[in-house]
Structure formats: C-alpha cells, structure tokens
Amino acid sequence: MIPEFADPEAPSLPLWLVRAGDSAPEIPSEVEPLAANWAKAQGFSGKPGQLCLLPSAEGGLGGALFGLGPQPKAGETPGRERFPLARAAAALPAGNWHLANRPQGLDLAQAVLGWLFAQYRFDRYKRIEAQAARLVCPQELDRERLIAMAAGEYLARDLINTPASDMGPDELEQAARNLAIRHGAGIEVIRGDDLIARNFPMIHAVGRAGAQPPRLIDIRFPGTGPRLTLVGKGVCFDTGGLDIKPPASMALMKKDMGGAANVLGLAETLARLGLHRDMQLRLLIPAVENGISANAFRPGDILTSRKGPTVEVNNTDAEGRLVLADALALADEEAPDLLISMATLTGAARVALGPDLAPLFCDDDGSAATIQHAGLAHADPVWRLPFWEPYEAMIEPAIADLDNAPSGGFAGAITAALFLRRFTGQARCYAHFDIYGWQPAAAPGRPKGGAGQGMRAILHALPDLLS
C-alpha cells in the first residue's frame, strides 16, 4: 500500500489538539462556545489520547478535540507512546481532517508521521478495512519527506510480515530488483555454487540446504560523494539448522530477514528524497534459508571466510553472523566512508534492551552519539552497547580463528558484534544494529507485526555522519 494524505482542496473537519491544564483543559479560544461547553459536559480533560467529537450548529459533526496531556517540561523524557496522534487517526470517524492548531511543545512533523504510520494495513491474505480518517498535510511541513519515510517503513513492514512461503530468497531478490528498477539502480545477484566460485563460502554453507539457492544481492545506486554501504541480514527463514529451534522459537522466524527489510526500506526513503545522488549508496543482502537437509552445514564444521579467518561452527543457529561476515568483507574491500549492518541477530539483545530498543555498536564516539541522538529525537530509539575488547577471547576457539557461538551465554549481543567487526577495518566508520524488527503488541502508529528499527535514526544522522 502507499501512504497518502487527504486532498487539501477537499472539505475537511478541524481537529483541535488540547493540552491538559492544571484545573481544566486548554481548549483553544477559536472553538465555538457551544462546542466547548459540549466538551466540558462530556468530561473532556485533555488527558493523553482522549477524543471528543464536537457537534456543529446544525447538529452534525463539526470537528473534534484530542487530548495531548500536560505541557511537557524542558528536558522531559518521551512519554509512553511515540506517536500519540496516531490514536486520533485510528479513532476518528471517516472523512478528511485538518489540524486546526499547533500546541506548544508538539513536534508537528513527528505527530503527522505517526498518523501516516497508523494508516498501514497488511492485507495480502485477509481483507482489512482501510483507515477511514485521512489527514490534510499541514502546509508548513515537507509533505514528500513524510511520505518517503512512511513508504520506507511500509516496505520494511510488508517484507517482514510476508511468510517464508512467499518471501524466500527468490522473492526477497525480486523485492530488491523492484526497488532497483523504481529508482534506476544497478543490481547484481550471485547465486548457488557461483558463491563458491566468487569466494563467498559462508553464505553458501549456510544456505545450501534451503529450498531455494542462497545468494548475495548487490545493489548500487547512481550518485557521487561519500560511500555509504548498507548490509542487511536476509535469512528468509531460520529453522536453526541441525541445531534445530524448538517450535516456539521458530514461530516468528519469517522475520529473520528483518535486517534486509530495513536496509531496503531505508534505501527506499533515501531514493525517494533524492539523497542517494549525493553519495555512493550500495546495498548488500546475503539471502538464504537456514534449512535442514543432508547437505546442511554441521556443528563442528570449520568454514573459511571470504576475508580468510577460519570459523568453527559451534551452533548452526548462529548463522546470521556467518552470512553477514562474507558480505561485510566484500563491503569493506571498498573502504566505504560509512559501513552499516542491520540484523535480527541475537536473542541476547532482546534480553538486554527488549523489543523497542535496538542495540547500536560503533567504535566512533561522535558517530554513535549522533545516531543515538537522532533516534531519540525522531521516535526511532537505539541504545549504544560497547565493542568490549576483553570479550574478544570469547570468540576465539581452540582449533579455528573464530567461534560463531561462544559457550556460556554471557554477553551474546556483544560477542556477535565483535565477531562481525573482525570482517571490517578498512571502512572509515562501522556501525552495527542488532534489531528485533517486530512489534509484539499493537501501539499507536505501530501495529503488531513487522517493524522498522533504526531507519529514521540513520536517515537523520547521515548529514553529520557523511560530512
């Protein structure tokens, strides 16, 4: 589906955004007295998410009040909801609406973006009624920028929500090709045994037991300037391999290509905004299924990576870092100015930070601070975790250079990030995001299901990161 605003020339009803005052709601003076008295009689207080429909003089629907809660104090942390206005989007009656006022302390662009996010529906397999209330984009906002960010989010959600029966490596490749066609990018795909001939042995090893051949998808956008390379984990389904997952752990493994979905979504936004022209944007997606068959890679196997270090496979369910390692090694050979990997990589990240916060790993303090600040400012939070040097010994087994799954279970997100860092070194800056890619319970603007994480944090940080 395509994110859309209401036609600004069409009739629309006013939506008043109201702060909760100390003793009474701060209803704007422009609201007709009859409507204001009606709101008071209905017990409208301006508390967060409260909606009050207003009558017109003729007895019809004349508008609505929506509560934002008290005026935030300076330096106050964000509330429980990232996109409070999205509640109005879901609750208002059908029709076109416009924001009739601009309360102090409201991030208008973020509020309107939340409304667009609330419009999303995944209706490929089931008829779902489209959201009836549509918003007129405020004139002072950059309409196309908001649509571009929503389009990137929609793309990521669609890809993640699609089950593996319809989103295997073949279909993920097609989604990448569609993106390249839309925006005039070049694409090369290395498949099957050609991965061995072209020196991507770990991508081949992980994916060779899948129902569809493994592959490496390489997209280059036209542009000049600093090099930005995005690497996304594209494990379209993860059984765990021979170290098979229990059923409960396998239930959501269609989302194990969430890293790929997020880099494709980010690229969609960058291309729609034309920002790719001011950089050399490249996407690398190792697309595989971690399946079970006679030719599946085994616990105890030693794999030789593209970069050269050998890897002992101590758990076939730690496959994401193996396919990313070969892709990162290729990316690093060009010494990009900024190299970013995104992956649904470790359960340890969820234990540490839960589903809302994606761990960010980056050795450059300034870049890490820029990304984290941008994420918090634009309702796309990430949280920095360290590349902790003392844990390097944990990923060094006895008979190979590296261990893909250190025993003990401690610091799993950090040891996975340290493993990936071993395959970089030429890039001016490397950042890794261990995302979840899934919204476990519906929230305003964030329906249950596939979710973007880190895309807008990166988008808003890029001007500083690539300067």
TrEMBL record:
Family matches, as Gene3D superfamilies: Leucine Aminopeptidase, subunit E, domain 1, Zn peptidases
Cite a single Pfam family from the UniProt record. Peptidase_M17
Q: Which GO terms describe its cellular component?
A: cytoplasm
Specify the species: Paracoccus thiocyanatus
Coiled coil ranges (UniProt) are none
- Family listed: Belongs to the peptidase M17 family.
Transmembrane spans: none
Record protein name field: Leucyl aminopeptidase
Q: Name one GO biological process term.
A: proteolysis
**SUPFAM superfamilies cross-referenced by the UniProt entry:** Macro domain-like (SSF52949), Zn-dependent exopeptidases (SSF53187)
Q: Which GO terms describe its molecular function?
A: manganese ion binding; metalloaminopeptidase activity
Provide the Cytosol aminopeptidase domain boundaries. Answer: 315-322
Q: Which UniProt keywords apply?
A: Aminopeptidase, Hydrolase, Manganese, Protease
